[in-house]
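User: These chains co-purify. Model them together.
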Amino acid sequence: MKLQIDGQDHDLGDLDPRTTLLDALRERLGLMGTKKGCDHGQCGACTVLVNGRRINSCLALAVMHEGDAITTVAGLEADDGTPSALQEAFMEHDAFQCGYCTAGQLCSATSLLREVKRGEPSVLTPMGAELSLSELSDDEIRERMSGNLCRCGAYANIVAAVRQAAEAES
Amino acid sequence: MIGKATRRVDGPKKVRGAAPYAADQAIEPTPYIGWIVEATIGKGRVVSIDTAAAEREPGVVRVLTHENTPKQIPYGETRDGSDADRFTMSHALLNGTEIRHPGQAVALVVAGTLEAARGAALLVKVTYETDDGRYVVTGEEPEDLLVVPDELDGGQEPDVVKGDIDAAMAEAAHTLDVEYTTPSQISAAMEPHATIAVWADGELTLYLSIQVIGWAITALANTFGLEKSQVRILSPFTGGGFGSKLGVHGDAVLASLAAMTLEHPVKVVQTRRSVFVNAPHRGSSIQRLRLAADAEGKLLGVGHDSRMPMASYGYEFAEPTAAGARASYETPALHTVHRVVKVDLPPIDSMRAPGEAIGSLALEGALDELAHDLGLDPLELRLRNLADREPQSGKPFASNDLRRCLEKGAEAFGWTDRPEPRQRDGRWWRGWGMAACTRVNMLMEGAARIRLDADGRARAELDMTDIGTGSYTILTQIAAEGLGLPLESVEVVLGDSRLPETAGSGGSFGAATAGGALKNATDNLCARLVELARDHGDSPLRGAEGEGRVAEGRVWIGDRSLGFDEVVGLVGGELSAEGSIAPGENSEKYAQYAYGAHFVTLRVDGVTGEVRLERALGAFSFGRVLNPITARSQLIGGMTYGIGGALTEALHVDPRSGAFPNRDFAEYHLAVQRDVPPLEVHMLGEPDEKCGALGSKGIGELGLCGIGGAIANAVFHATGVRVREMPITPDKVLAGLMAQGD
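Assistant: Joint model of the two components:
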């Protein structure tokens, strides 16, 4: 059983099939960047990217993802260690306090930008409307980030950070 | 440096997922995983416990129960009979058959992997004898069940009564006598309570998710009969607390017990559902509000009495629900009486802004009702009743900026443009609301150390925690300012019980206490540097004339100076100084509060009753602003927390068994991103030198106080429906709309 995480191959041997992707990352591989907030897909803290799309890693079994490209928060920065535009924007806008939900927020927001680029609508998007990163409304950002809870209450700053990254990327 | 907008120094770690929280620590050998088996009854005792099937599961190391674990000091007691409070007493578990509350741990399954532990936990068979328990406070309790708590959280008296509220109510032109209720709530820090325990050479080391390290050390020593010196706690990052991590809970006790029993590191991370029952929650409240006012809206009487649950076992904790009523508005008659009813629920304890958070919902709602009755602008009603001295004690305030918060907030919000009530716009009702907020300011005892190394770099050391408040950042600023160094030349080390003891993070006292201690340590170090530069036999400045001072990272005597490295070189490799702080005369002499005013607009769906916030503005005054970035974050964080409290959060209780039927995030609804409108924060304060060494007041809880009242008042302004039973969920609004024919 192998997993490819942040560009690196990891051998998990005979992994217990009950192991979630989240627990495989944390407890088997010691990759602690991804956090467990609820283990039930209710908080988003464990969000990672699988082949570029966000999922709750607590709701996925590790064995389902052999051969997939998995990106965690540790894989968002450039190869030379430069933070991504989103990571930079999160720091600039103080888009976190305790930081526990931050890995999930960042992975989720990274995926959000790609979803908008692909023109994928949210429940707020008017039927047939063209989506663009440069005109992404704050309400669209709020809606698309509502699966990621933050109890410290950094939501307003997260919106500002995502908006900045969206504008930079448009 | 202090007061400058400074980015969080731990930001680069946090955005890379590289900040190690308790359960993230890499330990050798790899810790076993402990999985908690919870009691499935409310109150009673374990009759039998069959662990055979669980222990046969591959990978299971041991199932710990009361039958095979060493005896601990009984829950609630201490190792030496000394006094202890709820944070420092024994927190023994698996120490007998008694079940005090629903969900209490009855076993810990320890296995080599999480999957094995979790799977085997399902196989533990427990039989119980169930006693009748009391799980809800209804307001119908007979007198003999009403307990007068010894004191309220923060040391306040349970009863403060002055003047004659009954006479005021009988004689006043305008009176109000209403009941508000708030439900049980949960702190819900995003990081579940977690511990890795290591037992080696007679020393217990815990990597622990905690707010206050010192109390946790005492609690663990009292639980296991250890010396405090045998316990070490490391807690460099804590993923939120909001009161629920002031003390230790099941994860810490059970991981320690297992590590000591098995002589192997053990990790216990509470599941989210477990956190609801094996960590504290805020009790429900029934609050009676009585207001009496003359025709001009001058208050003649304020009554704010509350009835809340208190845990029936081990410790006392009662919220100062009327704290705001005792502190905010001038009145000749004040009646504030707190009663509790003992219940057999999971631990009831502090949750962000105990007292003011829920008390302000009722007080500020009632004031809005009175203003409506008087035909007066609710802002004006508050302005007419501001206090010159603390209403409950007659003490002078260290500073009272409530008027400015109200006036500046109203101006910034454009409050004078508030439309007439009950504006209908298609299916939406639109409304505006406001409320004031007051939150007590506290200073505790704390100590800190600052070191300078041979290269002239500084290192601050204290057992303070950073639970998201920004401790690392403000302490870096304080040390840098004190020594005239750039931020990059200061390292702050926190979260280790071997470092000087602070009061940790809680009650909004963290920054003033830890920061004040560090400032004093830095001042002491500066004095020592000057003394060495002037007096040391080998100093090039020996005997130099002029004022001695530290600036720009150098030690000056008159107009001559030495680098830190040179001065440190005089005494070998390093120089250090300690400093401390304690509440002094000013804490006694002056009533100390931080202040704020909230203004919101919202719309209410006329079809579903759903409330959607559109805008919220808070104007706050809290002494010196240590860092406007992290301060603003704390304030918007508090406002966001309060939005959930007003609109969605309710922990329900099954009155038959004490079970919480909605103990997860699918059913207990925190505010989510889309529930939070654009937030605007104004910080108005100036340094208050009567408040600690820094002139700052605490703000971790301030933003939460009052915003719920502003929301409830805006719902009334929008619809004419007054919801006094929190939270303001669609069903309640809709029932009100239908009752009035809308």
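Chain B touches chain A through 64 residues (CB under 8 Å).
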